[in-house]
Request: fold
Amino acid sequence: MSKAQSQDILVLEEKQPKRKKKGDKGDSGPRKDLPRGWLVKTLCKTFWQNLLLSVAFKLVHDGLVFVSPQLLKLLIAFVSDEESFAWQGYLYTILLFLTALIQSLCLQQYFSLCFQLGIKVRASLIAAIYKKALTMSSATRKESTVGETVNLMSADAQRFMDMANFIHQLWSSPLQIILSIVFLWGELGPSVLAGIAVMVLLIPINAFLVAKSKTIQVRNMKNKDERMKIMSEILNGIKILKLFAWEPSFEKRVNEIRARELKDLVNFSYLQSISIFVFMCAPFLVSLASFAVYVLVDENNILDAQKAFTAISLFNVLRFPMAMLPLVLSSLVQVSSHIGQGVLGDLMIPLPKPAHGAQVCDGLGPWAPRTLVTLDIAPGSLVAVVGAVGSGKSSLVSAMLGEMENIKGHINIQGSLAYVPQQAWIQNATLKDNILFGSELDEARYQQVIKACALLPDLELLPAGDQTEIGEKGINLSGGQKQRVSLARAVYSNADIYVLDDPLSAVDAHVGKYLFKHVLGPKGLLQKKTRILVTHSISFLPQVDNIVVLVAGAVSEHGSYSTLLANRGAFAQFLNLYGSQEEDASDKNTTGTGNTMGLLQLEGLCILSKSSTNSWKKAQEESHKKLKGEQLIEKEAVETGKVKFSMYLRYLHAVGLCYSFWVAMGYVGQYAAFVGTNLWLSAWTDDAERYLNQTYPVEQRDLRIGVFGALGLLQALFLLFATLLSARGAMRASRVMHQQLLSNILRVPMSFFDTTPTGRIVNRFAKDIFTIDETIPMSFRSWLSCFMAIISTLLMISLATPFFALIIIPLSIFYYFVLRFYVSTSRQLRRLDSVTRSPIYSHFGETVSGLSVIRAYGHQQRFLKQNESTMDINQKSVHSWIVSNRWLAIRLEFVGSLVVVFSALLAVISKGTLEGGIVGLSVSSALNVTQTLNWLVRMSSELETNIVAVERVHEYTKVKNEAPWVTEKRPPRGWPSKGEIQFVDYKVRYRPELELVLQGISCNIAGTEKVGVVGRTGAGKSSLTNCLFRVLEAAGGSIIIDDVDIATIGLHDLRQNLTIIPQDPVLFTGTLRMNLDPFDQYTDEEVWKALELAHLKTYVQDLPEGLLHLVKACPLVCLARAVLRKAKILILDEATAAVDLETDNLIQTTIRSKFADCTVLTIAHRLHTIMDSNRVMVLQAGRIVEYDSPEELLKKQGTFSAMAKDAGIVNTETTTL
Reply:
């Protein structure tokens, strides 16, 4: 099948019809044939019942909206007419109340349906995107980063949800507009056309504004994606940034993007304020135009109360649909620009799986030179695949798993697969769950697997045995432990075919030997299965059935060990090159430094309580209590109770108090003008009574129109002033907050990142910053606006009927209690929503990173189920929140209806004393108040829920920082010049509640000395490097480098002058140049020279732009970084574990030649790398047990010589490469 064609295998297995519709997305054949509207069509097909019902409710509501103005007209006529009967007045009042009530019930039903639709749409979209991700082909996966996909899931699915709420406005708005125009015609006749003309003129202005803001929005999405991409990289590689003191460079990069983003944002806000201005002007200009024309057209047309106020309430009705239409259109535009992405993309092509064994026939590998690979692997055999770096071993594995497209030929795999990837993929679950991986528990087999995979000793070290929760990305396991857990998972799954991609690289030699013997080898647990083992290690080759040698993507030869040796081909040369050192010690190249548990310990991340086995006994007794250290990831804090008032102040401070004050004043001015306009109108209409039978004086008429116009204009100008100011202020706040958050996150100590999942931090940068940027300013503005509107309305009613002031008091008390009750519930529900939302995304991120494993085991269904269940938990809280909203709305609209009733009732009672104009004013204002009351609460609660974002960002700006980067005390220039290191009774622990890891170390390392550090797992080898870089601060004692106590100088002064080649090499996206020298401190010549010394020059010259993408060459990049920095002290943290012999050799020679005049500390993992050091430091349980030259230590019958014996080293000569 061609790359573009795709088929969604999972859809076939899906049972539920609802999701099935969503799943069909991928089915439509090649990408270009997809019709634009496929998604919308699918959604309509699925949810038609919901849509129909909500249409019915909305229709009833829209009809009733027009009843009130007619009733108002009757009421005014009643008040103006002396002869009318009292019962008529009461009847109109009751009718007003009833229409208001039915109207609100229909509206709430309609909203409830819409929101349910929204929830369902979001759920099905997220499920579809997730399912899509599970079936994406690797080619498509390369096109988008995990961050972008998660963004699609969070932001864009959310957009769809919001869209669903407003979709009906598309037909309802035009309907309301047409109806109002019809009724207005009845009132004012043809002069309505003037008003309509104004509206029509406003449409193109609006369209222009929408188009402009759309382009800005699209630009900003790009910026946002880019910023999130860098952020998640920074958080994933934070260790490297700290060790190399590169934070400022990355901070600068993020801030540059942020600056662009804010510039767009402020332009966007300006456009928004202009469109708000246009909108504010609209109703008023329309009424001005209509009234003016009405009065001017004909002498006899006199504006009386009935006409004016009926018209005004109709114009008020008009206002909402006119405002909604462009909003709906723009949000539609936003959604449609996102529909196309992400849910499309190519899918994996499933492999046919017929009985056992595997064969690859002429499978064209997609790796670079297109070469033919033909293999036939017999059932039950053990096949080793060997070859140099980049010869296509991993690609062959990927092809077998169906992760690569094969261009020609086919791959037949018969039986089930288990796969152990090169970099172990560990889920955030207990250790036991990681091994069972969704299968049933069979205790006997489980124990057998754990024993065979050498995990028993580890379980004793872990605080809660196999119930220990493993952090995100497996952070409380060392590399070797992860690899073995990954292997145990495969062994437990009991498949027919095992594909093992170099599983032994991360473990120590004797552990490797043990694993081979008990698991992989001819006598291991898997002896009856078909095993395909990619390996770097020569020592196991004599015991395998068949060896496949790959050279540049082609099989150069295959056969058994003896035949290949006899052939004298590439393989035999390879063996002669490296095997010569292996004759006296059959597996020197992987000799190790420890007991059966020798694993490499991940620096700073081993959170095990390393005390000894008796603490394990204690742990058993207290196992029902949660042990400290067992639960690594603390639950995300859910703030309860009211948002502190200080948060609002903090936000206003960030905006600037001066700004805040003037914005408020602007709104006050606007509403003062608003009240003025209405009172003036009421006076104008009373002229109709005064000049009942005389001609209306012209100057009086012109005065009325002129002042009316001026007041209206003033109102709009005040508003423009306020919105423009608030746009500036909001941008300022966004800038300040993001700046604080970013600079603080880059300055927190490493332990914070170990206990906080990246997803949670990313969430702060994505969701919360977005809220501060876009939602909070809007909420603040709407809140102010609503608040002022209500005050002014109540004021006007009280002016008309002073008794109304008495009624305000009980109403506002009722209102207040409803508000209090609701806001606290809503706030908590919203918080629950955001807390239950995180797991959806982190589960998704986890899935994407472990895709090949999930697919190889065929566990897609289980992960789909899990995704659905995490989603359901989130849906629960969202649904409750929506229902609570409806509960509130019904009650509030009831208050609104009461306001209408009382203002009408008072008018009826005090009939004789009132002018028609003033009654019209009070009742038409009251009719308007219902919606505003509703909005006020909605806005208060929205403001409060959104201000939580400020709270959450603030929480991370308060996290305790590590020591300052630069202090008063600067080290002398050119420090360290000698490179002497002294440890003086040095103690350290990982976190305050854990025990000491280094128990008081004292030693001296002379300048230019080469020291190897060895010790069994948990002896504190890696902790030593962390201490030198002050990733861990001392618990006692000190480290002195060249007479400077490192605790007294700034972290950057320290870290910039040391160099490390770290355990887990990380590359950042960007040019290779940026990866080596983010500050541009060095010239191009120096960079090329460093590349040459790191043996990367030729490789990089062949790349098109000299960029770098291959992770395999990564240790070499780290080496290039070290060479470029050329510090006096180099720390080599186990950089050679996952590298084949040739690369290892390269690194060793470079270090010997280039760093001859430096102090080199090697944290060893294979003993032969340190046999030529000047001295060797042997650590045990955090203390130095032996410290001398290797020769001396071998003579002494101590710990070191015992380790050397394990590794088969007899004297120092045998090891030189």
